[in-house]
Structure formats: C-alpha cells, structure tokens
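As the work plan foresaw, the team has encoded backbone shapes as discrete tokens. One protein thus recorded appears below exactly as we store it.

:::
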Amino acid sequence: MTAFWLIAFIALVAGEAATVGLVCIWFAAGAVGGFLVAILGGQFWFQLIVFAAVSALALALVRPVASRFVHPRRSPTNADRVLDQTATVIQTVDNEAGTGQVTVLGQIWTARSALGVVIPEGSQVRVRRIEGVKVFVETM
C-alpha cells in the first residue's frame, strides 16, 4: 500500500501544480498521512481514515491563511480615486446617443448615465462606478 500512497501523493502534487488554485494540496497532505500509516503497518481502512482526517485538518487550518496569498484582495488603482467624486458634465450625457464627457479631478472621462437619464452640459454629477474607460454618473 505504500506504493499506492506514494503514487497518490505524486499525482495530487502534480494536479496542484497544474491548477495552482489550492485544490489538491490538502489531499496530498492526507496522502502523506496514509503513507506513514502504511509504513507502520496499519490496516487499509485506518490508512483511509488518517488520509481523510489529515486532509480535512489541512484544509481547515491552512486554507484560510494560504488563500490570502493565492487570492489577494483587489488593490485599488489610480482610476478608483474618482469613485464618489463630484464631476462636471462637459458634453451632454445621453446613453442612447452614445455621448457624454465629464471632468473629474482634472481628468476628462467618457461618461454614461447610471440611471439612463439625459444629463445636460454644465451639470454637477457624482461618479458611481467605472467600467473600462467609462464612468457612470448620477445627478446630485
């Protein structure tokens, strides 16, 4: 049975290397537990229990910490600083016509109305979200 656990370990590590998503590594740790029990002469049913327990323990204890490094939180960009800022409409915002520009923090942005209403030139608006290179605004 030691060969079984060794092959399982290698396959699970290879699977983790291929996915890099913290999918198989927990089971690879469990395979090491099963391998150790097999070396010590434990029955196969006990090897399976140790495999399941070590896998679950590794998942429960290590995954929350490890996932912070694999899936870090989104870092704000320079563009994010315009969110919730007041902007001035310099070209009428009309979603149907595909027109609209605003100036916010000294920058000119293509704008669309978040609520779908026409916003005339000279209006003060608030930037609600960014999609690509467009800001979506609402009247104040």
